[in-house]
Write a structure and sequence with these properties.
By secondary structure, this protein is α/β, with parallel strands linked by helices. It is built from 27 helices and 16 strands. The longest helix is centred in the N-terminal third of the chain and has 30 residues. It starts with 23 loop residues before the first strand and ends in a 5-residue tail after the last helix.
């Protein structure tokens, strides 16, 4: 979103009798002026997005409002460029970016600055630091690449949503417009025997075909990354652009088609918002419905602006909301996210709608005093385009300066990727299971947090051997200890198996044993078809990993195999969707099958039970509450899936495997403390920290009967 008003270019830059301004290129045969209603369509789009984010039931596909904005943006901006060419015969690149600077940057800069400062004031700690880092990317219109990198990083993808996440759509638009005006000029300069609108239409048609094809493929491979990619979204902006190019032909269509196309288009948009949901592989082919719907609405309005859906879109309240759509889009997300973060809870629909009202009020003020005055500034418009561009550059510099300062002063944990960087005590100096349980009880009432240990207090030890969608054939396995030692130990499973790799590896080294790790993100050891959230469908890499790992484990002839898997967020896959109802039964059967297979190739199998989860992000909460970390404790009723743990214990014992219950090392009777004996218990909401895992090393070794 972001391109919502067609700014007028001053006539003195467009008259063919004057010399062309520097950076301008001549165009000819531009299409006629058109004016379907756009404000109402913008209003529909922002309503879909905002109400979806507020939690209104039934609008789980409201995210298609962004696709509507993309089409509208391509239509308006291309139409503006062609209209300027029709009037003056030339396009000024500098003039184009001058209009973009006046239109986009003032409101975007204001919201970004207020959001970053509010994050510091309302939530503080590491989350405010991450918001400031997000602000750096947003200021450079690169938020979508930030989201792609965060999604690629398995651990970062578990972090709470950023209050600046919605800037990704502005980034995609500006990335498209970094190339599109220049592409138009280039097309105008070649092949002059062919009418310009045909050359542009051909280029756009190729762009649409290529981008859509890539979108379908990329969404199947990794829906999370595809969602934010400019390559998968370019066809949506191009779809709007080709409408502007083909406007003369559209205007010759029968007037009777106007109502049919516009109403059909509005129905398609509504159908997409009501039938798509969070589990839909998007954008991919699913984006065709809302994009085509928007195209049909624009075609209908171009044919006859007063018919069909245009009657609804020209309704006064929608027209008013359409004018506020850009500011409302900018404000609604940080208002919702910061409110939820400061309250420490998920928002109800009523609370969400009330906060949307707050965002709407902020939008009115922003539109009246920032957006509209800057866009229509007579002082800026009367001067050279370079002045407006410089004005925009100053706003970007302001955003970068503010966010850079906050990034430098806000607290951030010290990263480490090597378990050797962590303080590792001798096993005999570490607490027993009973001593750990007592420390957990004491941790419930401990208020302040001591400064030790200083290294990587929240971090999970990430090894290059862990597989995932981005490394399905990574450096597997990880090896510890003596390759020729007296016996081999293996840990096998998902990230929760990797979570115990460091303490098990150190133990194996002390015992003179060989130890190897076989782990893959989101791929539990229980043998069933797993739903992959990033792909939004099946997870064939997980199946391949299991088969390969079992074969390698068999070749190692280990004396003991330890397995562990993450229950929270793991679901059975059925027909490309998560089957939550049948996951428990599938896990039970799959775990029994895995234990049977491993028992045939190893002397002992040990199931390390599931952990207690944290209700709040530990980094965000603890770094904001150093004085009283009790605010970050998690109720045991939330943290522990008792039914699942009892099932795993029952299946393990029935299959002749040992079972290690780790919950007493994390929870007292009613609460699970965020800090125990000076250690942050969790790296994130779903994994314990490496320091804490190492501190539990003796308890784990004794419980799993690994010690002689």
């Amino acid at each position: 979103m972001g391109n919502h008003v067609v700014a007028r270019k001053r006539g003195r830059h467009l008259q063919t009798s004057e010399p062309a301004p520097k950076g301008a290129a001549r165009l000819s045969s531009a299409p006629r002026t058109f004016r379907p209603d756009i404000e109402g369509l913008r209003a529909i789009a922002v309503l879909l997005v905002v109400l979806d984010h507020a939690g209104v039931p039934g609008l789980q596909g409201g995210y298609v409002g962004v696709d509507v904005f993309f089409v509208v943006s391509g239509f308006l901006i291309t139409g503006l460029l062609l209209k300027n060419a029709e009037r003056g015969g030339r396009i000024s690149i500098l003039g184009f970016y001058a209009r973009r600077a006046r239109r986009i940057l003032p409101a975007a800069t204001l919201v970004l600055a207020v959001t970053v400062i509010s994050s510091f004031a309302l939530i503080g700690g590491s989350r405010a630091a991450r918001t400031a880092e997000d602000g750096l990317w947003a200021a450079l219109f690169a938020s979508n690449f930030r989201e792609i990198s965060q999604g690629t990083d398995y651990w970062a993808s578990n972090l709470p949503q950023s209050p600046l996440q919605h800037y990704w759509s502005l980034a995609i638009e500006e990335q498209f417009y970094l190339f599109w005006p220049a592409a138009m000029i280039a097309v105008a300069a070649i092949g002059r025997r062919v009418p310009l609108h045909m050359r542009l239409a051909f280029l756009l048609a190729v762009t649409i075909a290529a981008s859509l094809a890539w979108s379908v493929y990329a969404t199947t491979e990794n829906a999370s990354a595809a969602y934010f990619s400019p390559l998968t979204r370019a066809w949506e902006l191009a779809a709007g652009a080709i409408l502007a190019v083909l406007t003369p032909a559209i205007m010759r269509l029968p007037v009777l088609l106007a109502a049919v196309t516009s109403v059909s288009g509005l129905i398609a948009i509504a159908a997409a918002s009501l039938t798509l949901d969070e589990f839909t592989r998007y954008p991919g082919s699913a984006a065709i419905l809302p994009v085509v719907g928007t195209v049909l609405v624009i075609i209908g309005g171009t044919i006859a602006p007063k018919r069909g859906a245009e009657v609804l879109l020209q309704w006064g309240p929608l027209q008013w909301l359409g004018k506020l759509s850009y500011s409302l889009y900018l404000w609604h997300w940080p208002v919702l996210i910061l409110a939820a973060a400061s309250l420490g809870t998920e928002l109800t629909m009523i609370a969400g709608l009330a906060l949307v009202g707050v965002a709407l009020a902020l939008s009115v003020v922003t539109f009246k005093y920032v957006e509209f005055p800057a866009r229509n500034s007579s002082w800026l418009k009367a001067r050279r385009p370079s002045i407006s561009v410089a004005f925009g550059a100053a706003l970007v510099a302001l955003s970068l300066g503010l966010t850079s300062i906050l990034v430098s002063v806000l607290p951030k944990p010290s990263p480490t990727d090597n378990y050797d960087d962590f303080p590792v005590a001798r096993g005999s100096d570490l607490p027993t299971a009973d001593e750990v349980a007592k420390a957990v009880v004491d941790g419930v009432n401990a208020a302040g947090w001591t400064p030790e240990p200083p290294v990587g207090r929240f971090l999970f030890n990430r090894h290059a051997c862990v597989r995932g969608l981005d490394a399905p054939t990574g450096k597997v396995p990880c090896r510890y200890g003596d390759a020729n030692g007296n016996g081999t130990m293996v840990v096998y499973g998902d990230s929760h198996a990797e979570m115990w790799a460091d303490p098990l590896g150190v133990t194996a080294t002390e015992l003179g044993r060989h130890f190897e790790v076989f782990s893959m993100f989101s791929c539990p050891p229980a043998d069933f078809s797993v739903y992959n959230a990033r792909r939004k469908g099946d997870y064939p890499e997980c199946k391949a990993f299991r088969a390969e790992s079992l074969a390698k484990i068999e070749a190692l002839n280990p004396s003991v195999v330890l397995i562990s898997g993450q229950r929270q967020g793991t679901w059975l896959e059925k027909e490309g969707r998560p089957d939550k109802e049948n996951t428990h039964a599938a896990w039970e059967q799959g775990l029994a099958s895995t234990i049977k297979s491993l028992s045939a190739i190893s002397d002992r199998v040990v199931v390390i039970g599931d952990i207690a989860y944290s209700e709040k992000d530990p980094q965000d909460c603890v770094t904001s509450n150093f004085d009283d970390v009790r605010r970050c404790h998690t109720p045991r009723s939330y943290a522990v899936d008792t039914e699942h743990n009892e099932m795993e214990k029952r299946v393990a014992e029935a299959g002749g495997a040992a079972y290690v219950d780790v919950v007493p090392w994390l929870c007292a009777q009613y609460l699970c403390p965020a800090v125990v004996s000076g250690f942050a218990t969790h790296a994130d909401a779903q994994h314990i920290s490496t320091n804490y895992a190492l501190w539990l090393r003796r308890s784990l070794a004794e419980a799993a009967a690994l010690l002689p």
